[in-house]
Amino acid sequence: MSKLVKTMLTSIISIVLIGTLAAFIVLYVLDNEKTTDAQSIDEMVELSYETPEVTTDLEDGSFVRIQFQLILDSKDAKKEITKREFQVRNQIIKELATMKEADFKSGLGKLEEQLQTKLNELMTEGEVTGVYTISKILQ
User: Fold this and answer.
1) Closest CA to 128 of 55, 86, 40, 68
2) Which of 49, 70, 78 has its CA nearest to residue 118?
3) How many whole angstroms from its chain centre is CA 87?
4) Are 75 and 109 in contact (CB under 8 A)?
5) Where are the domains of the chain?
6) Which CATH architecture has domain 41-138?
7) What is the value of pTM for the model shown?
8) Closest by alpha carbon to 113, among 94, 130, 100, 92?
9) I need a labelling partner for 100 at 20 to 30 A (CA). Which of 7, 14, 70, 115 fits?
10) What is the pLDDT of residues 11-38, one digit of tens each?
């Protein structure tokens, strides 16, 4: 084979490999980044569920009145959580019964995370992607 043919063949193979790699990156890597983006605010509002206001006592004898906004990942999950309202209330009361007044002053993030985990254990048609405290009165 002549030197010119070898150079052309090497160049063509290199171009094909680079093109294949670029196509893979565009189709798979960048596409996956788009699908894992957070929900838009409009989607969050559409897929949210407001829990009923719950009033209960805490471990140290204090009382709390609290309400949450649950963000779900699909319309089916929203329908399911609406049907499971009694279980949602039950989980909120169970989580609050183990807390003290000081726990509310240091932040509610841990409570929100625990509630999200417990509710996701109940769900079969989707999942809770976020829990936000929208009302809280501590006495």
Assistant:
1) 68
2) 70
3) 19
4) no
5) 1-37, 41-138
6) 2-Layer Sandwich (3.30)
7) 0.69
8) 130
9) 70
10) 899 898 898 888 888 787 766 655 545 6
